[in-house]
Amino acid sequence: QDEEKWDFVLVSDIHEVGSKKETKRKKFLDELSKKGFTIKKIEDKKLFYGVRAPKQIFQKYQWLLRNPDSRLQSPDAHSNIPVTTRIRIVNFILWNTVTSDLEKLQDLMKKKVFEAVFPLHEKEEVREFLKEKWARWRDIFRQQPIEKIRCYFGEKVALYFAWLGWYTYLLGFAAVVGLVVSVAGITVFNSSQLSKEICEANNTVMCPLCDQKCPFWLLSDTCTYAKVTHMIDNEGTVLFAMFMAIWATVFLELWKRQRATVVTDWDLYRWDEEEEELAMELINNLQHEPRQYQHSYLRSTIILLLVLLMIAVLIGIAHALVIYRVIATALFSQSDSEFLREQANTMAVMTGAVLHYVTIVIMTKVNRRVALFLCDLEKPRTFSQHENNFTVKIFTFQFFTNFSSLIYIAFFLGRINGHPGNYVRIAGKWRLEECHPSGCITDLFIQMAIIMLLKQTISNVMEYLIPWMAHKIRKWRQRPKKRSVMLGEEEEAEDPCKRQWLSNYQLGEVNFFSLFDEFLEMVIQYSFTTIFVAAFPLAPLLAFCNNLFEIRLDAIKMMRLRRRIVPRKANDIGIWLQVLEAIGILAVIGNGLVIAITSDFIPMQVYKYTYSPCMTENRTDVDCSTGYINHSLSVFRIQDFEPHTQVSETLLDLKIQEYRDYRNADDYSYTVQFWHIFAARLAFLILFEHAALCVKLIAAWYVPDVPKSVKNRFRERKHSNLRKELRWVMPQGRL
C-alpha cells in the first residue's frame, strides 16, 4: 500500500518531442532519478509526474537530527517518519535540485516547463476526521483538534490555528466589556447634560459649513448627532481604553504560556531551525557549502530609503482622501437635496470611509509586490529570514494603508483648519473640514465602523466565494475529458492514482502567501481592535464574531478548496509575536492620544473642576457640566468674513455667530482656557501612557512566559534520558 503513496506531483503541459521545454523537463526528472526518486507518469490533458523519495533520504534526516544523547543508543532503529516531515524534506529537495543547465525548479516554473508542484491530500484517517469534525460551519463553537491539525498540516499551520483560537477566546472577554460600555453609553443617550444643552440651543447661530450657498445653522439642529457623540464619548470609554491596553498585554503573555505548553508536548521547545536547514542541504547535496551571513550597509540604506518613499506614497493617499472629503463636503452642502445639505459632513465621512476601504483593497496588492521586490534586493540567506523581512515590510505598509486616514481624523481633523475669517484652504479654494461642536470622535467612530464592517463582510465573502467558484469551474472543465477516458481508454482510467491526482490538481493553488495572508489579516484586525478602541468600543465584539467564522472559513479552504499546504516546522508564530507586541505599545499611545486629543473628556474635566458653576459659584444643585457647550464656543463677527464668502443679507443683522474653538472675540487669538486645556491634555497623555505601560510591564512580569509545569516536564525528560544513557554505559565499563 505504501508503494502507491506519492510524495509530490509535478504537472506539465504536453510539449512537442524534442522541444526546449521537453528537454529541460527531462533533465530535471533525470536529476531526481539520480537521487533515487521513483517517478510515475500519467497523461491526461496535462502530464502528471508522481515522485516518491527513497527511504535512505529519510534515514539520513532521522540520523542527523536525532537527539545527540540518544545517537549512541540505537543507531539502526528508524521509527516511521511523520508524513508532514516526509513532505517537507521532499519539497526542499525538489526546489533545490539543480539541473545540468544550472536551473532550479523555480526557474523551470517561470519558463512554463512545469505548471504546478504540490503534495497530495491523502485519504487517511486524520484527513477524514478533520473534514468531518473541524472543517464544517456547524462546528463553529467546537474546540479545535490542534494535535490532528499538526499531524496533517504541520506545526506552523497548527500554531496559527492555536493562536487564532486563543485570540478569539480572550477576545470574548474584551467583547463583553466593550458591549457593556456601549450599552452604558446608550443608557445616557437622552440623559447627558451636554446633549440637552445642544438640543436646547435654539438661539445659538453657528458659522456656515462652506463659503457659497451654505446657510447659518442653529446648534439645536444637530441634536441627534450630539446624542450619538456622547453615547461614544463618556467616562466609560476612558476606562475601556485602559482595560484594552492591559488586555493586549495579558493576551500576549498568556499566549506565550499556551505556546510553551503546546510546543513542549510536540518536543520542539528547543528545536533549532538552522540545524534542520543545514541537515536538509547536506541530504540534498553532500558537497554543499553553507551560505555565509552577510550585511551591506549600502543595501540596507537603499532599502530604508525605498521603504520611506513607499510610506510617503501611502501618506499621500491619505491626503488624497482628505481632499476628497473636503470637496465632497462642499458639493453635498450645495446639493439640491435638503437631506444631503443637512448631512453634508456625515455623508462626506461615510463615502470617504468606503473610498478608504477601496484603497485598502487595491494597495494591499501593490504593497505585496513592493515588499517582495525589496526582499529580493536584500537577498536574505534563508527562507525564514526572507519571511521575517517580508513580514515586517508588508505589515508596515499595510499599517499606513489602513491607519493613515484614521490618524488624520483622530488627531488633525478640525485642529488645523483655521477659524472663520482665516480658514486654511486647499488650492486656495476649499476649506478644510471642521469638527462638530460635540466633538470629532463620531467621525472616527463612523470611519472605523464602516471599514471594519466592510472588511469583515465583503472581504470574507470574497475570500470564500472566489476559491469555491474557481474550484467548481475547474471541476466542470475536467468532466468532458473524464467521459472520453472512460469510453476510449479504459485501461488508463483504471489507474487508481489518476483520479486522485486530477482531483488534487483541480483544487485551488497554495503558495508561500497562503498562511501568511491569514496571519496578516488577523494582525491588522488586532490593530483595529486595540489601537483606536476608545473611539469604537464595539470593535472587539465585531472581531470576536468575525473570528468564529474565520476559523471555520480557513479550515474549509485548507481541507476542501485548496491543495495541501506544504507542512513547515515551527516552535512559535515567528516574528508576528514582535509585531503584536509593537501593536500593544501603539495601542497604549493611540488610545492615550484619542482620549487626550480626539475625545472631549479632558476639556470637560477642566471645565468641571475650574470653570463650572460647581467651582465658581459653589453650587451643588446643578450638574457640574452645565454651561460647558457655551463655554467651548467662540464668537465671530460677520463683517470679518473673507471677501468671497457669500452671506445672506437677511442674516447680516445677526452681527455675530459662533464656532467651536477657544478664541478671543476681538483679535481671534487663543484664550487662557485653550492653554489650560492644552496643558491638561499633555499631562493626561503622559500620565495615561506611563500608567498603562507600567501596568503592561507588571502584567508581563506577573505572568511567566513558560509555565513551571512545562519547565519541570522538560527537566524530568532530561533526567530520564541521562539515567537511561548511564545504564547503557555502566555494563560497558565492567567488560
TrEMBL record:
<keyword id="KW-0472">Membrane</keyword>
<feature type="domain" description="Anoctamin transmembrane">
    <location>
        <begin position="149"/>
        <end position="716"/>
    </location>
</feature>
<keyword id="KW-0812">Transmembrane</keyword>
<dbReference type="GO" id="GO:0046983">
    <property type="term" value="F:protein dimerization activity"/>
</dbReference>
<keyword id="KW-0325">Glycoprotein</keyword>
<feature type="transmembrane region" description="Helical">
    <location>
        <begin position="570"/>
        <end position="597"/>
    </location>
</feature>
<keyword id="KW-1133">Transmembrane helix</keyword>
<feature type="transmembrane region" description="Helical">
    <location>
        <begin position="157"/>
        <end position="186"/>
    </location>
</feature>
<comment type="similarity">
    <text>Belongs to the anoctamin family.</text>
</comment>
<protein>
    <recommendedName>
        <fullName>Anoctamin</fullName>
    </recommendedName>
</protein>
<dbReference type="GO" id="GO:0005886">
    <property type="term" value="C:plasma membrane"/>
</dbReference>
<dbReference type="GO" id="GO:0005254">
    <property type="term" value="F:chloride channel activity"/>
</dbReference>
<keyword id="KW-1003">Cell membrane</keyword>
<feature type="transmembrane region" description="Helical">
    <location>
        <begin position="523"/>
        <end position="549"/>
    </location>
</feature>
<dbReference type="Pfam" id="PF16178">
    <property type="entry name" value="Anoct_dimer"/>
</dbReference>
<dbReference type="InterPro" id="IPR049452">
    <property type="entry name" value="Anoctamin_TM"/>
</dbReference>
<feature type="transmembrane region" description="Helical">
    <location>
        <begin position="390"/>
        <end position="413"/>
    </location>
</feature>
<feature type="transmembrane region" description="Helical">
    <location>
        <begin position="301"/>
        <end position="327"/>
    </location>
</feature>
<dbReference type="InterPro" id="IPR032394">
    <property type="entry name" value="Anoct_dimer"/>
</dbReference>
<feature type="transmembrane region" description="Helical">
    <location>
        <begin position="347"/>
        <end position="364"/>
    </location>
</feature>
<dbReference type="Pfam" id="PF04547">
    <property type="entry name" value="Anoctamin"/>
</dbReference>
<dbReference type="InterPro" id="IPR007632">
    <property type="entry name" value="Anoctamin"/>
</dbReference>
<feature type="transmembrane region" description="Helical">
    <location>
        <begin position="237"/>
        <end position="255"/>
    </location>
</feature>
<feature type="domain" description="Anoctamin dimerisation">
    <location>
        <begin position="79"/>
        <end position="146"/>
    </location>
</feature>
